[in-house]
Amino acid sequence: MSPGLLYALAGMLLFVMGLAGFALLRHLLRRLMAFNLVGSGTFLVLVGLAQRPDGEPDPVAQALVLTGIVVAIAATALALVLMRRWFDLTGRTRLDGEADE
Amino acid sequence: MTLNLLVAGLLFTPLAWAVVSLLIGFRAGRWLAGAGMVLQAGVTLGLVWTLTGQGGFEYALGDWQPPLGIGLRVDGMALTLVLLTTLVASACGLHAAGYLEADRPGQRYFWPLFWFLWAGINGVWLAGDIFNIYVGLELVTLAAVGLVALSGEPPALRAALRYLFAALAGSLAFLLGVALLYGAYGTLSLRLLAEAVQADGTGSAALALMFAGLAVKTALFPVHAWLPPAHGIAHAPVSALLSALVVKASAWVAIRLWLDLGPVLGSSGGAFLMGLLGTAAIVWGSWMAWCQTGLKKLVAYSSVGQVGYLFLLFPLTFAVSDRVAELATQGVMLHLISHALAKAALFMAAGNLIWAVGDGRIVSLAGAGRHLPLSLFAFGLAAVSIMGLPPSGGFTAKWLLLQAAWQAGQWGWALAVLVGGLLAALYVFKVFAACYVDKASGDDFHYPPRRLDLMPLGLAVMALGLGLVAGLPLHWMGIGGAP
Amino acid sequence: MNGLMLAAVLLPLLSCGPAGRNARWPMALLVLAPVPALVLALLFRQGELALPGLLLGGVWMLDEIRGTFLVLTALLWLFAGVYAAGYMKSAGLRGFRVFWLLTLTGNLGLILAADIAGFYTFFALMTFSAYGLIVHARTRAAYRAGRIYLIMAVVGEMLLLAGFLLAAREAGSLMLADLPSALAGAGHSALLIALLGLGFGVKAGLPLLHFWLPLAHPVAPTPASAVLSGAMIKAGLLGWLLVLPFGAAPEWSNAMILVGVVAALGAGVIGVCQHDPKTVLAYSSISQMGLMTLLVGAALADTAPALALIPVLALYALHHGLAKGALFLAVGLHWPRNRVRRALLWLPVALPGLALAGLPWSSGAAAKLAAKQALGQGPEAGLVSALPLLMSAGAVATMLLVARFVVCLARHRDNGSNPPGVVSGWAVMAGVSILLFWWLPWPEGIDPERAKLLLPDGAKIRSLSWPLLAGLGLAFLAVLAPVRVPAIPAGDAVVIPECLVRWVGRWSRPGSIRLPRWVRPDVRKMSEQGEDWIRAHNGVVFLALLVAALVLLLR
Amino acid sequence: MTTTVALPLGALLASLLASVVIFMLPERRHGARIAVNLSAAALKLALVCVMIWGVFQGRAYGLRFAVLPELDFVLRADALAMMFAGLSSLLWLLTTVYAVGYLEDSPNRSRFFGFFSLCVASTLGIALAGNLFTFFVFYEMLTLSTYPLVVHRGTPEALSAGRKYLAYTLTGGAVLLLGMVWLQSLAGDLTFQPQGHSQLLAHQDRGTLTAIFALLFAGLAVKAAVVPLHGWLPAAMVAPAPVSALLHAVAVVKAGAFGMVRVLYHVFGIEFSAALGLLGPVAGVAAFTIIYGSVRALVQTDLKRRLAFSTISQVAYIPLGLCLLGPVGTAGGLVHLLHQGLMKITLFFCAGNYAETIGVQRIDALDGAGRRMPATSMAFTVGAFGMMGTPPLAGFVTKWTLGTGALAADMPWVIAVLVASSLLNAVYFLPLVHRLWFRELPGAWPREHHHEGRLETSPWLLWPPLFTAASILVVGLLAAVPFSPLSWAELVAAREFAP
Q1: Burial C221-247 (b: 16+ CB within 10 A, else e)
Q2: ω before D228 within 30° of 0 (cis)?
Q3: What pLDDT, in 10s, does the model give residues B98-148?
Q4: Is the CB of residue C500 less than 8 Å away from at least one CB of chain A?
Q5: In which band, very low, low, confident or very high, does the pLDDT at C450 lie, cut at 50, 70 and 90?
Q6: Which of A66, B61, D77, D433 has its CA 20 to 30 A from that of D173?
Q7: Cα–chain-centroid distance for residue D325?
Q8: What is the mean pLDDT of chain C?
């Protein structure tokens, strides 16, 4: 088993864990963390799988992951802003409860 | 050189407008937006002109060649959608300029988010590789979430957060699919992938992940639950933008992936599942729309139902004759276009009606029919297309889909299309019936400004007339990409 | 000629024009309207007028048979009109006039029309307009009579429509004249003859189709009863004469004769149990029409008597129409207070009745003798051989009815003076029936026989008189030995279907039974709950979708 | 643009543009609205008359353009189209006049007349449609433009009637669409043409063709209110009288019936339909509808409801006539398209007059109305007798022609149906006539409006029914002259059976 594949499998594991957390958790922050976990797993898979036969790191994969991280940060930031405002206005840390509107 | 300017104008000036309007606030942003729309329209027309003159082409942004650079695929389909975007986004923007109250605190973010959204959507239409599609989708999602949360009220925040979480889950599933594909075939370009893919597990798994992710973003039943609150709570022009374009962006990605990769990586089971979910979406979305008591919620659920039609493409293009596949693709694309026009009109008209009666409940519309506001007329014209009645674009789309289903011998989908039309009538006429209820007392009816009525009316007329001139967009879409 | 023909139909129609509601003067139109028809009938015996644009292509014509009927109709309507002008009270005058004139138009038109559509049109016009005359009094009895009349009439119209349609198809022509041969040779001639025979039979008052007659005559204003009974029911006979295949349907002959006998004698039996003089007269009409039916039956059997019988039937119709008209008009008279004048008045009142029974030297004697003479020309087979006897039996029945009429009239009469119109109308009518009859134009076939019929020899007088005397005797017996008259309601058997309808109506009224309300699940609420569940578990749903997609795509 | 294109397009646009203009006019501009309405109606009638003359002389009018590569939008004026177009234009004018009087001083007139014109535009489109697709376009447009008219009053019953109307007609439309799609996928875009496309269809599977026909027929039968798809029609009675008049006489039910003519004669071809064995079942269904509608009409106590069931029964004569293989039966069915329109619109006008002038809607409240409103009652009587098929009125001509056609087609049982139906017609119409003329008014009228002048009611309300009643008489009396409905129908029918 090549290290690349190992990374990829680890990434997959993280992905599934994160997704499970995403499905099962209700606390907003925890859901956000779960999402970040999913993101990290995905990036691991990306770099892990994208190994050139000669062992050189693939610059494209690096670029992709970098872009991905930027996107993820932006999303996380937006989520945090919204959550904070939600918490400020309602004092609650989860979404469910009373019905919409 | 001209081409460079055109493409750059299309993709990057919106980003510039976004930044500038962040600095100057909502009021001044209107003027900027007006200028920007004119520019976008000019650029779009220029590109369409180029396309009809010389056919489709591939374009490397800034001359950076793929894989590191960003490659754009400029073909008939993409440009038709760009044209659609220009139309609908301009209409929504103009509507918003009059509809939104300038003094609300969150409003200053509207124009920046609007322009980001526009740029992202154009990026998705034109992207030639799957990673840039991902980036474009993310840009669209984040901007859309921001637009939903614009008012800053708790219900809007909740809807926005739900939307964000769902969209992120979808994005990441999509990204994992991208990773798997890149790992397996070493390329991101859709064109190259289409040539490279073989029927193996990785590719199929990647496709499954991507479709699942896109399904969430498109709000396909049963992962649609985020959409109605988000589209229902947002300001009317925002809802219009989201329902008309944002949802279509991810749907279109799914369509494109399926058309390019599906023949090799797809399976009849998968195609059937998508078709089934599409049908379920049609039924459930329309039904839930009828159950609603709020006008905008109703229109939002209608979107859930209407995107279901798009997913009928999957079974109707898998393992069928070329003729059927062509008919189905044309039908679905026409549906996408006419629904975008009609739904934007519907949301804006609904917004105007709410403005007029001062209340978002359907029962409050009682007596509105007497004042015969133009908004109601626009709502009606758009609804004709939503119901898929002639001579609207919705009807022609349905006609093509029915032809495809019939010629493929897959009668069940034809039935779904027909039943969907009837269910749509169910909720559309719920609104009209409410308007016709004769209210004895109190006539506080405020006519919205005429110019607010023009945008929905214009789009609705286009949706209605599209059926009679459907040959034109279909001809454009037939113009292929690079040889 | 053509102009006269048009005027004969159009003048009555145009006279319906508007006028004041209770104005008296337009009643003069009633007298004026039949005049062109009368002139036409007296002057001409041949003629044809084509009106190609009308309906499906119209043709009007005049011939021997039509001429005779036209004479009768025009005369009767004319003097009944004179009578009506004096008789009618001022209330509802306009309505009466309009319906009178419309009915008249129909009656005259149907005689002239030679195409099926035209004939049927005028027939329907007459039928439906007569309703207005029948319910003129606006009483419960009038409404009942009107209802039953209308039901019967509509049934008749429908039978006729079907019959005409089928017959026109068989004949390949829209002319009435082509129907008899078509009926004779048709594949389903039985059906055709049944449809047309029964359709006209409603007008002619065949047994079980006769219900409307005894109900409608008493309630209608007296002049209307006169034309109803004298002229309108003859339209049924005329219909038979025009369409039935005489001499070519022997299988129908016996049936027709049987029906005629039942009508002639049965109506006599029921009629003598009545109390209203007009009802008695109505039954007498049924009885008389029965006798004519009898002759029609005989004519169906063989060609030779048929040729002779058709003019006789026309003559019979002429006689009966005039006599019955005079009798009806007499019912409305006020009797003089002076006993002597009263006694003298009985003579002209009763004479037309005796003529019906076949009093020698009367119009009735002429008709009966002519009939017997015509019957003698054919082979005597089946019931035809019994006809002279049956006719005599019919004469006995008629005599009884006349006696009953006299008795009832004597009981019902009231004393007073009459408006001039009433007196003159009745008097001229009676005069025409008794005297002028001999100078009227008769059908060509028996025209030369006038003298022989007026002055019959002894044997014939005997054969005419014995039924008369027998009837008189029976009547005296009945008066001397006061038997209780059985209570047979007017309209006899109609009460059975009426009861049936009432009974069904009572039971079929929309019931108050309601199905219990099913407890309906609140689908809408359940949908909302489902939607909430999906929203709350969006992660799980997403995972499920992902797994499903993976499984299906990976096969 | 040549007259060939300009005339049909102009006729279509006359009412379409009128509708747009009326929508734009403010509610209070009554005079302007009436002017627009009447001038558009008159213009349209004139254009249609010109076309009728042209078609009679053998000229062809129409236009065609491609919507999709294999789908054309076709307008074409043939003799059959002109029949329906003529009826629709004439009755539009009359109904507009009537509606102006009927809706005097009522709210929402702008909306009403706008949709009214739209509805008529659709009717003309249906008449002129040159293929199934074009037909369907206007067919659905008709559904949509009629709905606002049905629910015009905005009462709960009106709304529920509207719901019912939509449920039926939209479903019918969907079924029709299914049939069209199937047919198209089998044989391509079929332009309507005399004697149909039998050569093209002849090698197709018979079962498939039968199924397609069943779908098309069912879709059309909903609008034509063929039992058991008739439920919407009695409910739609809550609409204002001019709407009911239009709905029953020319617009909706006739659209369905007209579609049947097109499908049977100009798509399948009547002789081919007969060969497929389609005519028997259709005739059977129509016959059942005739009887059923009449029986149901008997027990109604509301005047308009009785008329509605009568329509169900009467309209079925048209498909019945179409199924009598032969020119005579066809002419009978076609001529009834016009005759029924005239008769039924008269009856509804009169029913509206009673409701509007003396406030009477129930049958048992009609006693003595003939004295109060003699002219209206006269018109009603003529209409009722026409319906019963009394000569010399229009209904008689229909029944006679149908009966003759039935015998020519060797279907004598049709006679029994005709007779039974006439009988039932008599049973439910004669009591009405009786009440009008021969009963006395027991008390005061429920809601009496007095109108100025000598007439019994507003002249706007009075002249249209009098005109139609007169025409019932005239088309019956003069059935044999050229240009009468019967002659025109015979002309159309003759072309279908040319060797």
Answers
A1: bbbbbbbbbbbbbbbbbbbbbbbbbbb
A2: yes
A3: 888 877 878 888 999 999 999 999 999 998 888 889 999 999 999 999 999
A4: no
A5: confident
A6: D77
A7: 23
A8: 85
Cα angle for residues B304, B310, B313 (degrees, 5° grid): 150
Task: Please name the residues in contact with D5: beta carbons below 8 A apart, sequence gap of 6 or more.
Answer: D61, D62, D63
3-state secondary structure C450-492: HHHHHCCCHHHHHHHHHHHHHHHHHHHHHHHCCCCCCCCCCCH
Residue D199 class from Cβ within 10 Å (0-12 exposed, 13-18 middle, 19+ buried)? exposed
How deeply is C119 buried, as exposed, middle or buried, from its count of CB atoms within 10 A (0-12, 13-18, 19+)?
A: buried
Q: Which residues pair with B294 in a beta bridge?
A: B361
Average pLDDT value over all residues in chain D: 88
A 18-77 → B contacts, CB under 8 A: 19, 22, 28, 31, 35, 38-39, 41-42, 45-46, 48-50, 59-61, 63-64, 67-68, 71, 74-75
DSSP letters for B174-200: HHHHHHHHHHHHS--BHHHHHHH--S-
Q: What share of chain D is helix, strand, coil (3-state, %, to 5)?
A: 75, 5, 20
At residue A51, φ and ψ (nearest 5 deg) are: -105, 135
DSSP secondary structure letters along C192-241: HHHHHHHHHHHHHT-TTS-THHHHHHHHS-HHHHHHIIIIIHHHHHHHHH
Residue B370: closest CA among C344, D336, D27, D253: D27
CB < 8 Å to B161, chain A: 28, 79, 82-83, 86, 95
Q: What is the pLDDT of residues D446-496, one digit of tens each?
A: 888 777 777 788 888 889 999 999 999 999 888 888 888 888 888 888 887
Tell me the pLDDT tens digit for each residue of C67-91. 999 999 999 999 999 999 888 877 7
pLDDT, mean of residues C278-307: 87
For residues D456 and D375, the answer to whether their CB atoms sit within 8 Å is yes
Judged against a pLDDT cut of 50, whether residue C512 lies above it is answered with: no
Q: Contacts of residue A22 in chain C, CB cutoff 8 Å?
A: 539
ipTM value for the complex? 0.81
Condensed to tens digits (0 to 9), the pLDDT of residues D378-395 reads 999 999 999 988 888 999
Residue of B460, B181, B186, B481 lying closest to B343 (CA atoms) = B460
> Is-contact B420 B308, C-beta < 8 A?
yes
φ/ψ of residue D65, rounded to 5: -145, 160
Interface D:A, ≥3 CB–CB pairs < 8 Å: no
Residue C51: how many CB atoms within 10 A of its CB? Answer: 18
Structure confidence by residue, pLDDT tens digits, D142-194:
998 899 888 888 888 888 889 889 999 999 999 999 999 888 888 887 888 88
Q: Is C123 left (phi over 0), alpha (psi -120 to 50) or beta?
A: alpha
Residue D181 identity (one-letter amino acid) = V
Amino acid at C251: E
Whether C82 contacts C424, CB under 8 Å: yes
Q: Contact B313/B203 with Cβ under 8 angstroms?
A: no
B145-161 residue pLDDT tens: 999 998 888 889 999 99
Orientation angle between helical segments B295-310 and B322-357, nearest 10 degrees = 170
Cβ-Cβ contacts under 8 Å for C163 (sequence gap 6 or more): C192, C195, C196, C199
Instruction: Report the candidate in C147, C86, C526, C497 with the shortest Cα–Cα distance to residue C332.
Output: C86
Q: Which residue of A has its CA nearest to C536?
A: A96
pTM here is: 0.85
Q: Mutual orientation of helices D374-388 and D459-477 as an angle, nearest 10°?
A: 30
Q: Where are the domains of chain A?
A: 3-90
CATH topology (fold) of A3-90: Helix Hairpins (1.10.287)
Using an 8 Å CB-CB cutoff, list chain A residues near C532: 99
Residue D257 and residue D315 in contact, taking contact as beta carbons nearer than 8 Å = yes
